[in-house]
């Protein structure tokens, strides 16, 4: 591999500068993505390997990131489990027939991933081939708790109170559902590794909506199962947005890196997570809307604080759709130029 | 005053059980509130002192909380400063003509609070009289940063990225606006104290969307000004949702108490905030959707962890509209019965 910085950062090797990529880097801020978005529906873009691969490569070619992350969506898993998922333009995901009670679980299945998610594996294989060693390829999945949020609430929410009420009033059913999602996710991520993913990231987008005790009960214990199942098979990143309170516990799951959002200083994040795990983050995505000199200064301050080892430069959450491409590029370039700036 | 538990908790006096109230306790989960909501628009309910007072008293009479908080809205301040604010049913606030650049500040004024917000003071006076010492009366205001979010973004948002972009690209204008809001808020809260508020709470609903450095720059320094201006004139509570990273700094603002959300353990919150300040919170509002025995156990665990001194039992955010009234009452009763349970 010509650029294996990401893999070396995950293994804790000594590096001159950290690798850099951006969550949601294949997305709406890129004009070429918007062209494909006009022609193909969201799930067409996910399901046609040529489209998914082309979108995945755009930020590698056009912004210069050090890693590709397969273009897909966390909700392909609930779909493969038998739930209908619609992507409503400008409104986000909509599941018309969500899970509400125990008998609804009968509608779900643990999917044969090669059959129902084979299109993701095809996209990974094709992307890997097209990447041709230019950068590592990241696969991903949503955490069981985050998927439960959508499967029960049926759509996005600020509080996911219906999903939480489901867990609090029907804990046995919730745990059965979480275990089903966990089993499906393990099979799915193993399939991604077989298809060529060099790294997989687990996204717990809504873990930070839970109290520390509920996070352990409804989210972390299932992510731990997934990470244990992947141990030795691939490199893993765990990103639980907002779940700063569990950084220490998450550092003990076997994940090779922890993603952190921007609402924590690098120093405190390192204190909580300990010195042995790689950290990934944590630039405020909204800061990419600011002027380029401020982005450059922000990146320098961030790497000064994290250091160049056991660190992956990234945003603290997904890139915003209204970020100018040259601001995204300025972010990436600032990381790449770091060692020079530092001298 | 017949029930001054809240005031004594804020002063750090020794208590047998903590006082209890709930953020948004006068609201949509109460059937009697819904009856008034059907007949009067949101701002009618805020502007007619008889309506505001009646709504304020409902949870005192019907749920038994230890404090009344005046029924109003944080957006009355931008309104008084000259911005149009609409409350769109089911969609939240909408400001059709938001602040976007420096010259927009010319449309704003530091209001004569007696003239433009006198209806809030009238409501406080009337409520105080109707309360007749049954419980302390809490006034409130939004933090300058949180008000800027709405004044710039023009509506609610998950990320308030337009408000942040405004601060990052036009910091001087942002600081001028924040200072104007700060000056208006100081006058407004002093007016509330003159009108009978025993305590005032400052709500920084969106402080937790900022990085620690940006929180200091765009939020905390202005809240500090407000709290300093009120020092010695009343008791104060500062609630910055999600801003756990600044609990230590907030404990040094002169606030008598800090509100904390549910995404932190009582132990860690106390460690960050130190031993000299009262803490308020931090029951997950969604837990009130769960069964009553679980609510009772949760309350007991919470008070066991916080202790009965320098502590005010509350939710970690506003009560959800779909909470059954008897669940809200179970929460309040569990706090009131605490000393007995503990023996």
- Spans of chain A with pLDDT under 50 lasting ≥5 residues? none
- Name given to the CATH architecture of chain A: Alpha-Beta Barrel
Average of pLDDT of chain A: 97
Widest β-sheet, arrangement of strands of chain A: 1-4-5-6-7-8-9
Oligomeric nature of the chains: homodimer
Roughly what fraction of the amino acids of chain A lie in strands?
5-15%
- Shape summary of chain A: globular
First and last CA, distance of chain A: 28 Å
How large is the radius of gyration of chain A? 19 Å
Q: For the largest interface in this structure, which chains are involved and how many residues does each contribute? A: A-B, 33 and 33 residues
| CATH C-level label of chain A | Alpha Beta
Domains of chain A, number: 1
Stated plainly, the CATH topology of chain A is called: TIM Barrel
* Largest sheet features of chain A: 7 strands, parallel
How many beta-strand elements of chain A?
Answer: 9
Which class do the helix and strand fractions of chain A yield? alpha/beta
Number of helices of chain A: 16
The share of residues in helices of chain A is 40-55%
Q: What is the H-and-E element order of chain A?
A: HHHHEHEEHHEHHHEHEHEHEHEHH
């Amino acid at each position: 591999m010509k650029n294996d910085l990401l893999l070396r950062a995950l293994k804790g090797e000594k590096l001159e500068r950290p690798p850099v990529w951006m969550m949601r880097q294949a997305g709406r801020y890129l004009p070429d993505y918007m062209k494909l978005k006009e022609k193909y529906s969201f799930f067409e873009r996910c399901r046609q390997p040529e489209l998914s691969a082309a979108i995945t490569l755009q930020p590698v070619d056009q912004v210069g990131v050090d890693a590709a992350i397969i273009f897909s969506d966390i909700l392909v898993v609930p779909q493969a489990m038998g739930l209908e998922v619609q992507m409503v333009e400008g409104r986000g995901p909509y599941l018309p027939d969500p899970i509400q009670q125990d008998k609804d679980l009968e509608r779900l299945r643990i999917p044969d991933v090669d059959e129902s998610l084979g299109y993701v594996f095809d996209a990974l294989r094709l992307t890997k081939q097209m990447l041709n060693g230019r950068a590592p390829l990241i696969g991903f999945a949503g955490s069981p708790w985050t998927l439960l949020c959508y499967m029960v609430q049926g759509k996005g929410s600020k509080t996911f109170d219906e999903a939480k009420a489901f867990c609090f009033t029907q804990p046995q059913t919730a745990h059965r559902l979480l275990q089903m999602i966990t089993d499906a996710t393990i099979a799915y991520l193993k399939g991604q590794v077989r298809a060529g993913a060099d790294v997989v990231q687990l996204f717990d987008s809504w873990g930070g909506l839970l109290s520390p005790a509920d996070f352990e009960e409804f989210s972390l214990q299932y992510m731990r199962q997934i990470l244990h199942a992947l141990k030795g098979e691939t490199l893993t990143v765990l990103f639980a947005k907002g779940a700063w309170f569990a950084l220490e516990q998450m550092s003990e799951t076997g994940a090779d890196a922890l993603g952190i959002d921007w609402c924590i200083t690098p120093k405190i994040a390192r204190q909580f997570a300990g010195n042995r795990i790689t950290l990934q983050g944590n630039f405020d995505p909204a800061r990419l809307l600011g002027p380029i000199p401020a982005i450059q200064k922000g990146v320098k301050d961030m790497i000064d604080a994290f250091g160049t080892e056991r660190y992956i430069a990234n945003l603290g959450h997904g890139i915003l759709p209204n970020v100018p491409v040259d601001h995204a590029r300025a972010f990436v370039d600032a990381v790449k130029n770091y060692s020079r700036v530092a001298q």
